[in-house]
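Quick question: what would this complex look like in 3D?
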Amino acid sequence: MKTSRSSKLFSRAQRILPGGVDSPVRAFKSVGGNPLFIKRGYGATLEDIDGNKYIDYVMSWGPLIHGHAPRGLIKALSAAARFGTSYGAPSPLEVELGERVRKMMPSLERVRFVSSGTEATMSAARVARAATGRDKIVKFEGCYHGHADAFLVKAGSGALTLGTPTSPGVTRGAAGDTLIAGYNDLASVEALFAANRNAIATIFVEPIAGNMGLVPPAAGFLDGLRRLCDAHGALLIFDEVISGFRAAPGGAQALFKVRPDLTCLGKIIGGGLPVGAYGGRTDLMELVSPAGPVYQAGTLSGNPLAMTAGLWCLEHLKPSLYRTLSALTTRLAAGLAEAARSANVPLQVNAFGSLLTPFFTTQPVRDFASATSASAEQYGRFFRGMLERGVYPPPSQFEAWFLSAAHTTRAVDKTIAAARGAFDDVAKGTSATR
Ligand code: KE4
């Protein structure tokens, strides 16, 4: 596979962008080799600047549930751009998108748009602290809520991938109020409440964890968090940046019937344009400036192009899409498991809705410890073997694979066929040289 143009551009990129990328996980550091520079995306396909084509399972890390560049979305954006790209003033679009979000996720009685998931989670944490008058927040080891200081403590995603779960530059003051519990371990949460009486403002949780690889919630886990928050006067915040509109039209909160006090959204809500949002109970959100004293602002918040993309994206989430995506994901998960068995490679495949992660480990993956028992080195070999065979999985063992409406049975079966070869590479302890 020729990748000389990408390699050349990567050398040049490293002379202007730290690590040659604008987000760490893209640099292929944990899987080996140099990142591919992308020329275009269409449907479920990525094409790199050397002309190689891949079936894409990153899908921009989640926003592209309708696939790359759906015709209708491009049409809507082209029309919207003629009216301007940003006003710095309110527009009907943000009201319409806010009302649509509330219709799909009724717990968001009020919503504020921002430009990233990080902005959404950092703002929601501020609201929770202001509302409760308490300082401490609980997060779960291996969960990732963006890169605000308070969350870069035992964080997942790129921080875990690159071995910096707790980042330098985060001061004791910033991280000192962040308490860490175990995902799917209610006892660890109870212990934190017992040790920090009346001091915990909120529990932050990915209701379906996607940033240590995919780890679904154990039965009763989310209900248990709701119960503990109610018993101790803390707020429950669902970080649905990944699961929002993906797990179901109403997100994980609709699926598991647990109502959070605040919800953070991103990815799908912007359809591939920069949008984040946080929202929830009216009494909490009315604390947000200018309605209340909790300050939060953003130059491009509610941007008309981003709102247009979000509206198009949510309007096209038909119930039948979720059944199709779930069936395709189940097919892929079963195919990967079978291919690994045939190659005698230990593999655990976690799948949920249109998300999955193949973990290179012998033990079932139910939490951070079991997730990190997986071999990043074997995943790297598998990853390189898949690239060689025209499939682009996430460049990290500790991320989720994303399927979309553009993925077909044919694409999934091609992926499984490629995996047979890639698992052989792993079994031989080698991978096709790039
Ligand atoms: P952004 O600031 O990257 O828009 O969102 C942060 C965030 C918050 N909450 C959850 C549950 C998230 O998964 C994310 C971001 N997800 C990662 C991928 N796992 C983004 C990819 C990247 O960092 O390049």
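Answer marked as accepted. Residues 4-65+318-428 form a domain with the Aspartate Aminotransferase, domain 1 fold (CATH 3.90.1150.10).
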